[in-house]
Amino acid sequence: MTFTNPVIAGMHPDPSVCRVGDDYYLACSSFEYFPGVPVFHSRDLVHWRQIGNALDRPGQLVLPPATPSSGGVYAPTLRHHDGRFWLITTNVAPGGGSFIVTADDPAGPWSDPVEVPGIGIDPDLAWDSDGNCWCTYAEIGQIRLDPATGKTLDGPFRLWSGGPRAQAPEAPHLYRIGAYWYLLIAEGGTERGHAVSIARSTSPNGPFEPCPANPVLTHRGTNRPIQNTGHADLVQGPDDSWWMVLLGVRPGGGTPGWHVLGRETFLVPVTWVDGWPVPGDLEPSMTVPWPLSPPPPAEPRDDFDVPGLHPRWISVRSRPAASWSTTDRPGWLTLHARGPSLDQPGITFVGRRQQDLSCRVRTLADTTDGRGGLAIRLDECHHYALEAGDGLVRVTARIGSIRHTVTTRPIPAGPVRLRADIIAATTNWYPSQGPDELHLGIESADGDFLTLAQLDGRYLSTEVAGGFTGRVIGMFTTAGTVRFDWFDYEPLPDA
User: CDD domains annotated for this entry (predicted)?
Assistant: First the structure.
């Protein structure tokens, strides 16, 4: 059966997967966004449905205003052991650190965090046949851990750290498969030099023998449409064949190529040769040898008709209960301003990851009692916004240290339809061709679109802004109270 990579599109990097019977569960990094660590379920490894977030209570995840963009929650590992789900991750924020949360049901609720002091990022959990729990982490170190208390019982030990002089040995995952313990890592940095390498040992703490074919997967130095491949996790498919989930990006435009959706989750087959896992070619269109069960097409509109928010909705660093409601005006999402600008921490913002290279986003905003609208955000210094209020709608662009009002237009009283069409470039023959164009404007009730600004998408890309995240599109308020009747997200065919 044919499927399309990525299997989880948009900013869903550092995938960690586990199989429980016929079910698969996967968790990803979430960085400075709350709630943290999205959790997905699948029955076929291809179609994934978000069932929750592991860190969905303020007591589990504290991201102070001083948390930088691309700080926050890094690289979880999700495992199932002794009838319970275990997730270990690191909060790279002031006062943060590594910790474990557990759950009987991966949809939640998850426990309060148990701190694991003194370890690096990208922690992994693995249990041996004697019940010992081994925590392996970036650089590459390891401790024997009591996962119930977070206490170190032995170590730390230094393990194999990848190829000679390879930068950033990270993302370790330790597995017992057959007669060996396999240590899978990423190396080369999470940019174009990213790679997957592996070593094996008869003991969980080494010594480890490197695979002679390392790196076993990399797209460095190629013109493949998927780049930055690495940070992988192994899993067996429904037919017990072996597969690998990993992160990658889809650059667009000319040189150097700009990726705007962040790092996404891809799937690739694995075969075993002489006791070593060998990943196959990673392509945008691939096949699996088992039947697929695609879910019904996603509804493009969220009408905010239920008391809570779907787990796909995320906010920047926090979402205080007093800042939002779907019951103040039933059927509307009400946002109360906390900060005056998207340029600063503390903004009231509710958004979702951009998951398609081309898409259309619309919302109906009532700004009678405030000012706010629709924003496409990468971080505080890189975002475009349609802001309505005080009888005007304005398009603003923040690019690095420059903040510019692109255009301003009067609007009549009453709710206004705000719209953004994101159109991916279909050619990259010209070196400075950008990855996409963003058309921002207002829409009439009968669907006529008045474009107020047409902006280059490269300035909302990781190659320009830096960091580890991708675009998030959503609703915000900078003054008073703004209400949103609905929000549409619609994939568009590439032009």
Answer: GH43_XynB-like
